[in-house]
Structures are given as C-alpha cells and as structure tokens.
Amino acid sequence: MGDRARVVILGGGFAGLRALHRLQALGERVELVLVDARATSLARPALPEVAVAGKLVDHARFPLAPLLAHHGVRFVNESAERIDADQRQILLTGGETLAYDHLLIALGAVKDYDAIPGFREHGYSVCDDVEAPRLYDALKRFRGGPIVIGSARSVWGSRVDAPRLAAPCEGPVAELMFMIDHELRRRGLREQATLRVFSPGEVFFEDVGPKVHADVEPLVHSHGIEVQTGKVLARVDAGGVVFSDGTSWESALSIVLPPYSGNPLIKRSERLGDEQGFVPTDKTMRHLDLDRVYAAGDCAALAMPKLGHIAVMQADVAAAAIRHDLTGQGEIPPHRPEVFCIANRGGIQATLILSDTLFGGSTDLTLDGPLAHLMKWSFDSYYFHTVGRLPPDLLSDGMESFLRRLQH
Ligand SMILES: Cc1cc2nc3c(=O)[nH]c(=O)nc-3n(C[C@H](O)[C@H](O)[C@H](O)COP(=O)(O)OP(=O)(O)OC[C@H]3O[C@@H](n4cnc5c(N)ncnc54)[C@H](O)[C@@H]3O)c2cc1C
C-alpha cells in the first residue's frame, strides 16, 4: 500500500460521499478508495417527487465514476461480499481482496420488501429508483378507490443506546400522502379516492415532540387524510393490507415503506454487526469491538431515526475521528443527532421539521409554506449539481440558528 494510509469507504451515498469530501482535506497523506455496487449515487429524498410529480429519475441520481476520477479517488464499482477485520481486508464479488488501513462502513440499510408477504405481487413503494418510477406509473393509471400508505415495523439490535423506533423514517409517508392528495385534486380525482395512513408506532412521527405534532395534525385533517397508529403490517393482498391484529383495510393502491434490515455484508462478516446487522459504534463512530473500523449513516446502529441529515452528521464525526487517528490533529465534533427534514406537500408547499426532543433537547418546530419548499428545492439541486456536496457549513449553521430563533 506504500507510505500513504489507505482509507476505504464502503458506500457512496450521503454518508460515504460526505466523509470522502471531508477526508480529501488530508491530501497526499491518504489514498482514498470508494467501493459501491451501484454506478450511480441515489439521492432518496428526491424519490417522492419521482413517484408523484414525475421528476425524472435521472435527476435523483448521478454517476460516481466521473466525480471520483475528478477528485483522484479510486472507485471500485463492485459489490463487497465480506469484511475480514482480522486481516484488514474486504472481499469483493469478483473474488479480489482490497486491503485497508482504515475502513468507513457507509452501506445504508436494506429496505426489506421481501419480508412483507404479498408485497412483490400487490404492493408499491418509493424507496429506490425501481420502486419510485413503478409507483408513478401506477398513480398515472389510478382512476379512484382507496389508497393506503404506511410503514412496516422494523426491529433493532441491542448493542447501542439509541431510540428503538417502530418506523425509522416516516417523512416519506407524510410526503406521499400530501403529494398524492395534491395530485388527485389537480386531476379532479380527489372525490373518487380515500387516503388512509397507518403507522406501526404509538404515534405517527415518533421522532418529534408535541409542538411538531400540534402543527402537523391540523394539516393532515384539513386534507381529509385518516391516520391510525399501532397498526403493524402483516401482508399485502390483491384487495388491500392486512394487519397483525387481524384487521384489514381495503385498498386499490397499497404503498408501503418496508422494514429496515442490516446489510447482508455486515450479517455475513464476523463480529461486524449487532443482532440485526447494524454496525455498533461509540459516539465517535468507531466500531465497539474492532480497531480502525468506523460506520456512519443508515448502516450504523446509532443512526436513529434513519435520516440523511444524521448520516451526514455522523460522516463528519467519523471523518474527524479517522483524521485524528492518522494525524493526531483536529477536534472530533460531538455526536448530536436531531431530526431535520423537509416534506414536500405538492405544488409549492412544504413543511420543514427541526426537532431534538427525542434526544432530550427543547427544539421542536415546523416551518410551513413556499419558503420550506424553496429550501428543499435548493438543497436537492445543490446536491445534484455539485454531485454529492452539501451547502457550506456556514450556510447550514446559519439557517439552523435562524430557525431556532423562530421558535422563541
Ligand atoms: C423515499 C425516501 C425519502 C427520504 N427523504 C429524506 C429527506 O427528505 N431527508 C432526510 O434527511 N432523509 C431522507 N431519507 C433518508 C435518507 O435517504 C437516508 O437516511 C440516507 O440515504 C442514508 O444515507 P447512507 O449514505 O447511510 O446510505 P445510502 O444512501 O443507502 O447509501 C448506501 C450505499 O451503499 C451501497 N452499497 C450497499 N451495499 C453494498 C455492497 N455490498 N457493496 C458495495 N456497495 C454497497 C449502495 O449502493 C449505496 O450507494 C429518505 C429515505 C427514503 C427511502
């Protein structure tokens, strides 16, 4: 490997690309290698627009090879099969091995459609670039009837102290229900349809506090959307969805966010994962048991809820910890999770949510209207056109402190 330390990043999503951009500051001291099974990086927050508003799926993803070549980063466009932490190497599908000095695991979580009986035959979803266009086609054909939207229940391991949310990311459910409502009104079909939403949690949006609930609930009612909580999906049938309490809802279109599960690579690799295949780390994102192994984003057991915003924050922490290992320099920022997301509501409406009550904080606010929509559009466009960069820290920090002031 030569004199330079080799840092391998597994996964080129929000977490992997953010860490890569941070670690590039180390210049010639490190050899950066990024491994991804996909040729493109997928920006999932843009997928509800693909599914409902007809945004081109190619505007929700960008090719990794040119970006990485431009930055002088080696890109291995292959699936990783297994990590051998004793030998400090990764086994690739092609049979080759890739050695590392430091490893950052940023592999995301598996959206386990196959865990829901009947989903493949009768269900729709939005979580990737196959499902979102499929849902768009189904919505185009839709002429009326009941629509059901909800999250299946996920199960978590026990090695780290993180909230165990029944649904780790309900933002897309909220986006879909509001955007579909808007789209059906636009097409003059709203009277011919009902919109019912289920959540496996005790409350819809378990990850925010009372102020956000108080702001969002009237919006849901005013759009004629019914929400029921404590509903655990058992299966999807041709005629609707069936819950584990024996009840069923009729549906012409069943849209489901599947359970999250750990990456098979983590499950296959010895000592890597917790009981569910998520990577247990301390708050500097170092693996609890393995030397020079880090994790960030949806694959990390500490990432809860599973949000791009948290993936990026953890990537900053992990990159600083790796930098500190390599140079003995630099501060490692605190692991400070918070819920930050913007849900489009159709047209130029959106609702921004910023809340840290789940983690003991007192911030719990929404910003509703075209300004929130403009912020989401600007963020998505910036990420897409800069191929995986986020707005400068000064801008993001300034925006958050502006929002916090709004609360007081
Ligand atoms: C529909 C939807 C909308 C969302 N909207 C928002 C939002 O508005 N705001 C927000 O903050 N969050 C949102 N999220 C959550 C957000 O998208 C995720 O938290 C974020 O993508 C996690 O980033 P990541 O880098 O950890 O994982 P990912 O983005 O999933 O990236 C993981 C990468 O690892 C690669 N990989 C996986 N396995 C292997 C392997 N064996 N070998 C090689 N490569 C592999 C994959 O190809 C992928 O590129 C949304 C999620 C969904 C599903």
Overall description:
The protein is an alpha/beta fold. The chain has two domains: 5-37 and 78-109 and 262-327, FAD/NAD(P)-binding domain; 111-260 and 338-407, FAD/NAD(P)-binding domain (3-Layer(bba) Sandwich), CATH 3.50.50.60. It contains eleven helices and 23 strands. The strands form seven sheets. Strands 5-2-1-9-20 form a five-stranded parallel β-sheet. The chain has a five-stranded parallel β-sheet with strand order 11-18-12-13-14. A hairpin with a 4-residue loop joins strand 6 and strand 7 (89-92). Helix 1 runs parallel beside helix 9 and helix 2 (47-53) runs parallel beside helix 6. The protein is globular, with a radius of gyration of 21 Å. The termini are far apart. 46% of the residues are buried. The site of flavin-adenine dinucleotide (FAD) has 37 residues, from helix 1, helix 2, helix 6 and helix 9.
Pick out its properties.
single chain, 408 residues, alpha/beta, FAD/NAD(P)-binding domain, 2 domains, five-stranded parallel beta sheet, 23 strands, globular, binds flavin-adenine dinucleotide
Broad shape:
globular
CATH topology of the largest domain: FAD/NAD(P)-binding domain
- Write down the overall mean pLDDT: 95
Q: For the largest sheet, list the strands in their spatial order.
A: 5-2-1-9-20
End-to-end Cα distance: 54 Å
Short précis:
With 408 residues, the protein is of the alpha/beta class.
